[in-house]
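so my prof wants the structure for this chain in the C-alpha cells format not the other one, which i didnt know existed until like an hour ago. anyway here's the sequence
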Amino acid sequence: MNVRRIGVLTGGGDAPGLNPALKAIVYKARAYGIEVIGLYDGWHGLLNEGSDQTLWLEDHVVRRWDRDGGTYLGSSRTNPFRAPLPGNNEPRDRAAEVLANMERLQCR
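here's what i got, hopefully its the right format
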C-alpha cells in the first residue's frame, strides 16, 4: 500500500505540545510527498455528524503553530467504540463509521 494522504486528529484533552506536534507531522509528511488533512474535534470528527469538518494542512497553514499551546484542530474525549448516536445516550461501537469516513476522505 502506498500512502499518499494521512488524516491527523487530536483526541483526549488539550495539551501544550499538540500544535507543534501537528506542525512537525505536516513538515515531515510533505518531505515524503504525503498530503495531510486535519480532522476537527478528535474522534468525533470521524463520526458521521462531524466528518465534513476538515482542514488541509500545508506548510503555510501550520507555519506558526509551534508558537501556541493547545490544538487548533480541537479535541474531544469521544471513544468511537463507545459513542452514542445523536439523540440517543446508549453507547455503541461506531468504528465502522470511522473507517467509512476515512475511506471517503481517502486517508490512512
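also thought this was worth mentioning. DSSP finds three helices and five strands in the chain.
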